[in-house]
Amino acid sequence: MLLSDDSDGVRTLTLNRPHRKNAINPQLWIALRDALNEAGRDRGVRALVITGSGGSFCSGADISVRDDVHPKYKLQRLTDVALALQELPIPTVAKVTGVAVGAGWNLALGCDLVVATERGRRPHTTRRAGQRGPRAGRQFRDRRCPGRLCCLRAAAEPSFTGRWALSGSKDSSKDTENSE
Hints:
single chain; alpha/beta; 2-enoyl-CoA Hydratase, Chain A, domain 1; five-stranded mixed beta sheet; about 15% strand
């Protein structure tokens, strides 16, 4: 369900539910929280990468799984992961291949850096799922820097589109030329 691999001080956590596009079920929420806490305690880990298997990063929370707990406790699982991610003393990278939507996109935004392959997609479907835009990602807002989420959204766009929006031009080479 969650694979962990260490190499040269970098721990890679791989969401491993490819048959569900790595949708996070209750057990995976708990495993992810525990793995993040362990990474924070392990002095041999200098950086953390979160990725998904089977060509997808994460298609969000797995709502097809029946879970007979109060919604408050379901949200607590997500909050536990968000807090564990934000409290890590090491840099975190979301390596996005394929889809990253809903809770998956929020998980990516919770990392310090989002790196996407050309196949990385982040369609924002929270409006269709009944969430309003400002609520999307609320759990991953960094308490130490209230504007961090907005900064991450702006910073993540070039990683998905290959375009920079520094001066409004569509050609990033013009931005570089004008800034020198």
